[in-house]
Amino acid sequence: MRFKKPVADGRTTWSVAEEETIRDLTKQGKTLKDMKHIFPKRSDTSIKNKIRKIRFKENNYGAEHRQEKYDLVAAWLEMTKPSVLFEGFAGEGNITSIYLEYNALKEIHACEIKPKIFDTLVRNLERKFDLKFRQLKIKEIKVMYGVLDKKQIFLVNGDSQKWASHLYGKGKKFDFVDLDTCGTVLPGLQNYIRIVNDNGFLAVTFGEFLSYRFGRKDALIKSNPLLFEVFLRDPKSFKKITLQQFYNRLIGWVCLLGSQTIAYKELKLIKPKQEVVLGRKPRGVYRVLFDVKKSDSLASILNNASKYLKNA
Fold it and tell me: What global pTM score does this model have?
């Protein structure tokens, strides 16, 4: 079976004038259907990608529920009370700032892979908290180190999976691991699960819902192999998967990943503690807080996952 990927006619580069038009139409609240009439030679995927890139560039992605997200972060801090925290996708540091203002926090590792955004992250924190970072050289990864009211701050300019693996090798564990990405973390989630303390917490943003809304079967199957079985069994039924069934498969897969550890003694029992949709279903951003505990057996993990998968 082959997936058909929509291709824009001629694959022509977007002009400055076209980008300005897209920007204006987005501000006016125009739909994809409206824009398709204006750009008849552009595919739906091309238009969607351009809107997304412009929003990221202007820091408008998720702006409609940004304060709601900040309030949620503060609420989860009070609920979980972490002293050591790992932030996998720090961006320009808006959420990092909230974590640094939490009095009980003693240490934070915040990762950002893009150099320009990382430089902005460092500048933003230095200005807001009157900090001065110094550079460390660890495994050829650029790390900026600073201290705020006895809190140790490690800002990492690199792949957060690699940094998580590096810390795991040193036996480092965290009370709270926050993975707030716009894409998917499922293919490499086990790398982060390994650094969560027993009785710790894992916060995940499920960017997969963007692919679900746009019908991107290839992206969905890449992030969650449980969906491939559905497609092979009946390709037509794949389109009929409900929002709840899709969500159950995501949660079920996260639960199963608790068995994907190097050592049997590190099996993790992962259970959803709170699900929050920022914005309106089904177009909102899904954030889920998980309890992570040491599992006494593989059977416990399978039974936990089955609760979700039998209804998916």
Answer: 0.79
Bridge pairing between strands 174-179 and 196-206: parallel
133, 146 Cβ separation under 8 angstroms: yes
Residue 142: C-alpha distances to residues 34, 92, 115, 162 (Å):
45, 16, 10, 12
pLDDT for the residue 60:
55
Tokens 């079976």 belong to residue:
1
Helices (H), ranges, the chain: 16-27, 32-38, 44-57, 66-80, 94-100, 115-129, 160-169, 189-193, 208-214, 217-223, 226-233, 235-238, 243-256, 298-309
The span from the CA of 199 to the CA of 175, in Å, is: 8
Say if residue 263 is exposed, middle or buried (CB neighbours under 10 Å; 0-12, 13-18, 19+): exposed
Measured in degrees and rounded to the nearest 5, phi and psi for residue 202 equal -125, 125
Domain ranges of the chain: 9-61, 64-309
State the DSSP code for 112.
-
* CATH superfamily membership of 64-309: Vaccinia Virus protein VP39 (3.40.50.150)
Q: Which residues of the chain have pLDDT under 70?
A: 1-11, 52, 54-65, 208-240, 262-264, 280-284, 312
Strand partners, 144: 135, 155
For residues 252 and 290, what is the distance between their CA atoms, to the nearest angstrom?
Answer: 12
Q: How does pLDDT run across 255-270, given as a tens digit for each residue?
A: 998 987 766 678 999 9
Handedness of CA 293, 298, 302, 303 (dihedral sign): negative
